[in-house]
Amino acid sequence: MNVKKIVGLLAIALLLFFVFTQPDNAAGSVTSIGTTLRDGAESVIRFVTQLV
Fold it and tell me: What is the DSSP string of 1-52?
């Protein structure tokens, strides 16, 4: 079995465990990641807009 596949399956298992045991914290983490990604995208958009 490929090491990447094993690590991927372990990551998914850990994620599911986290969601089932601590759903409030998991939701907060996803919200935080989404906010970070949105802020990054807005920064890139602002940068590109300033170039034009």
Answer: --HHHHHHHHHHHHHHHHHHH-HHHHHHHHHHHHHHHHHHHHHHHHHHHHH-
